[in-house]
Design brief:
Two copies of one chain form a homodimer.
Chain A: H1 6-13, H2 17-24, H3 32-44, H4 51-56, E1 63-69, H5 79-94, E2 98-104, H6 107-120, E3 125-129, H7 136-144, E4 148-151, E5 161-164, H8 167-180, E6 186-190, H9 196-212, E7 219-221, H10 226-237, E8 245-248, H11 251-263, E9 273-277, H12 282-285, E10 291-294, H13 297-312, E11 320-321, E12 326-328
Parallel strand pairs in A: 1-2, 1-3, 3-4, 4-5, 5-11, 6-7, 6-8, 8-9, 9-10
Antiparallel strand pairs in A: 10-12
Chain A binds a DNA duplex through helix 2 and helix 4.
Protein name (chains A, B): LacI family DNA-binding transcriptional regulator
Keywords (chains A, B): DNA-binding, Transcription, Transcription regulation
Organism (chains A, B): Dactylosporangium cerinum
Chain lengths: ~350, ~350
DNA sequence: CTGAAAGCGCTTACAG
DNA sequence: CTGAAAGCGCTTACAG
């Protein structure tokens, strides 16, 4: 009736509780044959460790923490996080790890949460998203010695290991594709400009534009919302030398931009080509379907979880570069009208 | 340096550890004046309880559990859950509660997760979403005596308290609006038919159609995905007596339907009116913007959390009816062409 | 109303 | 390699 404890297993196996603990945790201090016997008995009894007891005694909490920024209007819209979480969880649960979620209004509160989690031992490690250049959270985490992995570019990760995808390369692929279609006036609608990955993209955009001699290449920074994307689009398309192609930093803004273009009487892709970064199912639902920079975000999450678990286990971890987002051409891009 | 424990507070206050525990937890067993003094000292020392120790000693884990179904293709798309989670968390964190998230492939695994959480004491209660008529999870939860609240209609909640919104009323509002615009052939594209709230809507749709004498009122059940919505729409619009108005059970399907209609050369709303259930920002981004049944999903989550916390606290809880979704007319609906 | 004590189920030095 | 023991920080009967 009652769930078995290590004491029950110890009695059954005729050893001490300590021996059971060592055996089950793969620690030295018990012979291989006894270990095997103990593990067999534990399985037979359906033993599952009590996480609270383990955490209290200084062991692992078997929980990983993730903070999310309290919804700017985009949350609940950007599919990115939900997909990331889904991938994270897939990996975590195979290792019997839980995912603790907490909304935070800002970085200061986020750091306070980390501090509490750490002194509570309620999480064994955390994942850091949306890093900014010069992000205070990085130092705080290092100081706490809380195992952490950054989901973002190494340029902003400090000493922490990170998992990232080289957005610069993907951006160049997209711009070169547009250039090959004859576009000379290409503009970009970016997300929040203080995010590290936005900076990477902005830099790459400037570089490739210079290389290709695209003199009108501007970036308008927004807040990732549909409204922000619509406003930026309206402004760009109202220019006397309006661009013939637009690149958006997320799918929501691209869809908003498409709608604005159509309202302004422009035909996509005849008058204007559009590319979205991040390819959620919505991109295929609009008309015309959006050409997008796609990648497997759930897999990204899975790899992030794997890296974090390794860091928690005390293994030496180094930053890993994930698969690049690559261009998925659909109906929203076409040759530049001459 | 080290975080203070009740032992530190007890020493400081000149009382026993037990007294501190009683004082801090609002339990009887300590006088009001001593209680006030102890609380003051605890605050001054920056005391925060260790959740692991508390859980181990049989107290509250201060964590609430939520399972999500491993992504059908809709996840990461339907904004509903992200908004719900955001609202949940807002309430939970003001009570120092955490939210533990776990993906599950099916109900059997979900029940196993509840069982584990319960014997672990790793959560104090759970929230149940997407209930089906005759849902095995309800019985399992009652058997475990795990405090739980259903996010869904009382018809499928068994003995559990639920928080719900009367979808039947909202559906009638939408259909009557269409009828007032002169529509006689109205069809509905529903979500998964075994979900309890789908059943509520389907029933209401049949009833109001009969009352208004709309003989062609059919419901096609899908899986909530854009593809499913597109397929259903194509089928409906290919009929010789095609409907002049369509009602979709979520925003994703409505957007897909809009796109299909436009591809088939129909003009919205001149040839076809469209209404979406659940009003995410995307509904305003497409062209024409979608008329939608809106409600504040984050508030819904907040209320759900409040109800669950009351249940956990052992207060008597009864099901509460949340705000109705109401019609938000936009460009996708108009008079029926005669 | 208050205090001293046992116990929750683990982990980990510490002796053998 | 193994065992006996202390301790993690709480809660809660149980005596006074």
């Amino acid at each position: 009736m009652k769930r078995p404890t290590i004491a029950d297993i110890a009695r059954e196996a005729g050893v001490s509780k300590g021996a059971v603990s060592y055996a089950l945790n793969g620690q030295p201090g018990v012979g291989e044959t006894t270990r095997a016997r103990i593990v067999a008995i534990a399985n037979a009894m359906g033993y599952r460790p009590n996480t609270a007891a383990r955490a209290l005694a200084g062991g692992a909490a078997k929980v990983v923490g993730l903070t999310l920024h309290r919804p700017p209007k985009t949350l609940g819209v950007e599919p990115f996080f939900m997909e990331l979480i889904s991938g994270l969880e897939a990996e975590l649960s195979t290792h019997s790890y839980g995912l603790l979620l907490q909304m935070v209004p800002n970085h200061a509160d986020e750091i306070a949460v980390y501090r509490r989690w750490w002194s509570d031992r309620s999480v064994d490690g955390v994942l850091l998203c949306d890093v900014r250049t010069d992000d205070a959270r990085i130092d705080a985490l290092r100081e706490l010695q809380l195992p952490a992995v950054v989901v973002g570019p190494p340029t902003a990760s400090g000493d922490l290991a990170c998992i990232w995808s080289d957005d610069g390369v993907s951006l160049v692929e997209a711009v070169e594709y547009l250039a090959a279609l004859g576009h000379r006036r290409i503009a970009r609608v970016s997300g929040l400009s203080d995010l590290a990955h936005t900076a990477v993209r902005t830099e790459a955009f400037a570089a490739v534009s210079a290389r290709l001699g695209l003199t009108d290449a501007v970036t308008i920074a927004t807040d990732y919302t549909g409204e922000g994307g619509a406003r930026a689009t309206r402004r760009l398309l109202s220019s006397p030398t309006r661009p013939t192609a637009l690149l958006y930093d997320n799918d929501i803004m691209a869809i908003a931009g498409l709608s604005v273009a159509q309202q302004m009487g422009l035909s996509v892709p005849a008058d204007l080509s559009i590319i979205a970064w991040d390819d959620s199912p919505i991109c295929r639902l609009v008309h015309p379907p959006l050409t997008a920079l796609s990648r497997d975000i759930a897999a990204y999450g899975t790899h992030a979880a794997r890296l974090l678990l390794a860091a928690i286990a005390g293994e030496p971890v180094t930053s890993v570069q994930d698969e690049l987002a690559h261009l998925n051409p659909r109906g929203s891009t076409g040759p530049a009208r001459r």
